[in-house]
Amino acid sequence: MRNFPRFVLPGLQPNQKLEAWLRNYMKTPHLSKLIPTLVTAILLTIVGGLYIWNEDFRAFANEGWQVLTSNNEQLVNEWVSDLSFWGPVIIIAGFIIQMFAFVIPSWLLIVVSILTYGPWKGSALALCGVLVASSLAYAIGSWLSEYTLQKLLGQITEKKMKAYLERYGFWLIAIFRLAPFLSNDTISFAAGLSSMRFWRFISATALGITPLIGFVAYLGESTERLKTGFLWVSVISLVGFGLYIWWDQNNRRSD
Predict the structure, then answer these.
(1) Is residue 1 part of a domain?
(2) Per-residue confidence of the chain (255 residues) as pLDDT tens digits?
(3) Any idea where the VTT domain is (predicted)?
């Protein structure tokens, strides 16, 4: 068992024996994390199989990658509009790809969804995309070991994320989703590794992203107003949450 790929085992520490990990894992309830993990495995298998064995799908995926990474709002909007029925599917796929490709801003996909399909349908589509992508990130975080996640995110970032999640979990995730310029997928990975239940995580995600989507729908087509508004939302939410942490830590010291 020494040659077993240890990085794929959730919760396995670098120096922990596999037998000890297996005993602890079997005793721990993982039902809330099992569902998104299974869905992730199925989706990745399907998409990976299509990309490898279907030439048309591979060409389409490569074209989509070039468009989505162009950071050109008009180009993305025109490309999605031409897809007709497949447009919503591609947008949701874009949210998933965005987890790993930081060159695709999540706010751009929200804007494209609303401009292409209108404030109501577009908002619903954007919300669906965020929830699906967040669920997959959570599943990946619960699937990987802490050691591997530290290699992906950096040890300091992972440790800080996990510590803040244990203390401020629900509201920390909501704030990260509300602030568009934060790396909210990073916290989704860390949440999967933490003790936070999936339904609590996804509720916090929905609570944070819904006002942001509504904000985009309200501002409409003005890209400059959107960027300015995003900046203000990020600053206000971070300052407010920072003040709350300061107040909480002062209370803990006084106690």
Answers:
(1) no
(2) 444 444 445 555 666 665 565 555 544 545 445 555 566 667 678 777 877 887 877 887 787 777 766 767 677 777 777 777 778 888 888 888 777 666 567 777 888 888 788 888 889 999 999 999 888 888 887 776 666 666 666 655 666 676 777 777 788 888 878 876 666 667 787 788 777 888 889 999 999 889 888 888 887 666 666 667 777 777 777 777 777 777 777 776 665
(3) 104-221
Task: Say if 198 falls within a structural domain.
Answer: yes
- 24 part of a folded domain: yes
C-alpha distances out from residue 52 to 45, 91, 186, Å:
11, 21, 28
Domain of 85 in residue numbering reads as: 6-254
Domain assignment present for residue 78? The answer is: yes
Q: Rounded to two decimals, what is the model's pTM?
A: 0.67
- Residue type at 244 in one-letter notation: Y
